[in-house]
Amino acid sequence: MATVRELAALVNGELEGDGDLEISGLNALDLAKAGEISWLADLRLTKKLAACQASALLVPRLPPDTTELPVTAALIRVLNPGLAAIKIQRFFLPEPFMAAGIHPTAILGAECLIPAEVKIGAQAVLGARVRLGAQVSLAPGVVVGDDVVIGNEVVIHPNVTIYPKSIIGDRVIIHSGSVIGADGFGYVIDETGRPHKRPHQGIVRVEDDVEIGANVCIDRATFGETRIGRGSKIDNLVQVGHNVVVGESSLLVAQAGIAGSTSLGRRVLIGGQAALAGHLEIGDGARIAGKSGVRSNQKAGAVVAGYPAIEHKKWLRVCAVQVNLPEMSRQLRELRRQVAALAANNRQDPPTSKELEKDE
Amino acid sequence: MATVRELAALVNGELEGDGDLEISGLNALDLAKAGEISWLADLRLTKKLAACQASALLVPRLPPDTTELPVTAALIRVLNPGLAAIKIQRFFLPEPFMAAGIHPTAILGAECLIPAEVKIGAQAVLGARVRLGAQVSLAPGVVVGDDVVIGNEVVIHPNVTIYPKSIIGDRVIIHSGSVIGADGFGYVIDETGRPHKRPHQGIVRVEDDVEIGANVCIDRATFGETRIGRGSKIDNLVQVGHNVVVGESSLLVAQAGIAGSTSLGRRVLIGGQAALAGHLEIGDGARIAGKSGVRSNQKAGAVVAGYPAIEHKKWLRVCAVQVNLPEMSRQLRELRRQVAALAANNRQDPPTSKELEKDE
Amino acid sequence: MATVRELAALVNGELEGDGDLEISGLNALDLAKAGEISWLADLRLTKKLAACQASALLVPRLPPDTTELPVTAALIRVLNPGLAAIKIQRFFLPEPFMAAGIHPTAILGAECLIPAEVKIGAQAVLGARVRLGAQVSLAPGVVVGDDVVIGNEVVIHPNVTIYPKSIIGDRVIIHSGSVIGADGFGYVIDETGRPHKRPHQGIVRVEDDVEIGANVCIDRATFGETRIGRGSKIDNLVQVGHNVVVGESSLLVAQAGIAGSTSLGRRVLIGGQAALAGHLEIGDGARIAGKSGVRSNQKAGAVVAGYPAIEHKKWLRVCAVQVNLPEMSRQLRELRRQVAALAANNRQDPPTSKELEKDE
To answer: Is the terminal CB of chain C with fewer CB neighbours within 10 Å at N or C?
Structure first.
């Protein structure tokens, strides 16, 4: 429990209304009950407030006309209500690290470096020479290969596999079923058409503050490293090929796939089920719409969609016309008929001198 | 072994032919040998009967002309041969629950409620306060988080992960590698472009009689619950985002993806690799073709395809025209040339009064 | 360490330059340092040699003008530098089988046949009557069902699940999280719209020399078998439905999906995120471009793209025109206006006898 005044102070907000109200937790606008706080991410959602039962609300500081919000709840005005909501959510639901130690059924290889403050779950298996930072949590069923290095405050959920020599930064979260560092898809075809496997001697490096969803695959490099840049977030079932580089703070939405050796800049957004061909360069801040297929380099700030991907605005116009294709085809047939008739008709007139010239 | 007469009684069918034949099992039309029974799902497949060696066949009851089926096998006429085949298959291959108890290497957290009739495999790990119904089978390597509730007669295959607080109904089947209840993909971007993780305090609820394929991901809700409705079936590698609601008896084919907060009605069909954007409402009985991308709400009974998805019949017509685009483009160029020539020609005639008016 | 002369002998190559140079390993063109060898897969990449620091290079034997390569490195001329590079890579990084035996925490069912030369990792679980060939490596967390047969020199990475009765050939590699033999997606809908599960009594057969990536799903057959042909390679997150047959030496790129009962010939290439409908026949050597959707049979050697997939060259032309659709639509509107004006104009002339006939 905390008062609205205390929560306002926590998020550096301006209080309007009863600061003495006791708040028990944060909840979504449509689920919040009396005694809870919620947030209005965007003034365009104001109409949702009518049914909102929250006792307090985080609302945007500007513009001034927000004073007219149709609510009786106490208000806390902040620059970014979404961010402030996260802060308050963590206040009510703290997840302090519990140094439960190493479960007796966990198996550790030779020469591992494990700090005292650690939580290694039942049936987890660590290879040889694994090094863990402080306050690492490895859930049950996690398998960590030889020579893996894991930073501080990392959380690895159940049944994740990390192949040998992978490097995982600080505060990384990896959800269940993900596979870090499997061999990439690299074969040489011989003269009889048989593929021969290229050994993959590179690694995967996951930088600080990355979150990786469930059942994601990030392949190790053929040589060198596959790299996920600091602060990037990867959704479930995403495929990251060998030698891919993802820049900082990029977002890869579910089921997206990035083929080998493609390089993303910072703050790139890859929509769900989008695919990027191999050996491409995608500039900072580029946005690739869901289900797109990108076959060429993209400049910083590019916004593309479709397959092959084109400028997003252009794609929208193409889509709008595309549904009329049957009608366009019909019109085109009709026009050809009409023009042929007109031409035939014209030819019945005495030809002009210009026409005569052309005919020669 | 059972006689054809006994099998006919089992499925409430009308027997034609030798009811005393002994049958050893059910098999596919093209694989069945003498002594086995098979089924003809649809009279349009009748031509497949020529090579069929089965000694007995489940066939549709109607229409009357099916009496002319070109086989010597004994026939059992039923309303739905496919359903009857399942019944007979289960008769020959019963899978009675084996209460093998708790394997000594399985690890159970504090205060779990485990009935005597249970099968918990080697290396399975249950968190604290897990509650299991009767006749639950948890395979080796399954990890169940704290406070999970699992109903009766549930089968969880190896290496599945169920995150804390998930609720699993009766007779649910979950195949290997699936992840139930991982955090959704929810971040707030700050003014510097860095994404901040929103804690996910909601849950996943899987209702009765749901089957979930292998390596599926169903994310927990941000707040509230993600819900898979009673009797729905989910194929492999499907992504179900946070706060999605799937209605009863819906089918999600392999590699489909549903973005956050989208809601499906009953008996919805989502084809393979189809994608649904977030916050949509899809009506009862809607059918989304494979590989479609749905960006707007769909009415009950809608049948759509393409990306962006349009009415399926319209999409087929668009596809038929689309392949002619190069030819259409050529014809359009040619027409423009012809029309320009006609116009030039016409202008050499004395202009009509109407034309003169237009020019002013 | 080996001399360039020794390496040339190893790959049956022609040496040019200093054969006494000591080489410590193989590396990529852009990463190789002095003392390392690299390879030039293709003469079109010759411009990359400028920055290359490798002391030796595998280069194509032909054509003769390759003698002009702009490098000071020792050269080894071979027919296929990529294949030769693999051979040299394996020379420097041998991965001899280590018969570590059965880890004490591994659990084996009754009546398993396990050769002495084996490596079964911690927490692995084998069902009853599992048969392993020589030099099999089962990593930690692997679960193998009852009656599975595994050939010689097979490597199964952590957290793989193999369902009962699956058959795995010699030298197969399966990466983490993959699921072999889960039930296919097969239901019969009853008259109320409820789906009923068809038991899957078939199996999966993986032939010799197959490699399966991470988080792949290969479903067991309804009846009979799902089969992955000898030497085929499957990338991460691929879906292979029940009763699919993949021919020899085929390549399935990441996130591709093949629906039930479709059959691929030999040396078929399925691009990333491509989808094949069920019950299709795809001929030998067919190439399905990434993100394609194939809804019809394909002849041997077919090269297709798009959805629905068409001939690849045609698809490229369609794509080139498609982006001009908004302009084509505008031109079509303009033409219709012009032709209407021309027709109106013509009708002001006295009609010809031919026109009069048409009007009747």
So the answer is: C
